[in-house]
Amino acid sequence: MKTLFAAASGFSESASAGVDAPGDLWSAFLGQLGAALGAESVSLQLILQGRQAQLWQAGAALAVPEIASLEKMRNARVYSQLDLPHAEGGQQPLRALRWAVGPDGFAALVLQRRERDFRAADASQLSRLVPYLGSALASWNALGRERARAALERRMAQDLGAFWLRLTPSGRVVDMASGMRSQFGALAALRLQPNGWLAFSDPTAARTFRQALAAALADPATSSLVDLSRAPPVQMVIRSDGPAGERTLVAILRQAPLARSLPVDHVAEYFDLVRSEARLTQLLCDGFSLQEAAQELGWTIETARSCSKQIFARMGVSGQPGVLRKVLTSAVWLR
Fold first, then answer.
1. pLDDT in tens, 147-170
2. pTM of the entire structure?
3. Do residues 232 and 123 both lie within one domain?
């Protein structure tokens, strides 16, 4: 049962401390089940909307029943090779069990041997597993959807340059967003020390950080801003926000990504520009004047002016502020 619950969550008791990525443990459960019931091959199929969404297998790679056969099975009944729908004569000994998963899906567990048949006691043990198998696979499926949503939201936040840190009331980092550790290498204004404390390059920012901690602890409804750097602009917001029963704070950092960090071809395609126009657009959005952008690109100022007019026309704006507004408020940053 422990292996079944571990498969449902993706985490086992033996997982290393600090491991936060789930693993696929269903094959381990199937291996244990097969050993307990003397099966040479154990397979578990998840069928959603009439299609195989997942297949796990342990032991010998024997052929699994077709979906058409599984669809004819009744839930919670243990089938043999003799009464399995659409079973062919002379099929190897097997026991199959099906249960519902959500409103439009089901799962089928199939145990097989090459020679001697299963015992009646084996079918009885499978029947007793039905309530646990249904709950475990439903939990695994729901957790998978939640993790997919969380991964999408995490990627969107990172595309916009946003990350989070979880802090103790004294300001020590106890947890952080995926990718934040590597982000520290690109932050000159902030460094994470091996003991979990933050080191600030600007004494004013360090003092403001301590004041923000105190304000968040004094009033959980408040949030305080800490300016970490002006070039490039990096800011942090601190507020009280922790799991139930934990007295922690969260710090949300944002370093707005440079337009030049976007692939030139991506910008060109999104705004229907040629590559030279896209490169100039990126520089303008990163704060370059037209003169500075021309120097950066190795152009004359006349070439830059001519290119900027083409950009204005293609984007349907009347000047550089319109270009900035068009790009900075667009979804070009979300990839």
1. 999 999 989 998 898 999 999 999
2. 0.70
3. no
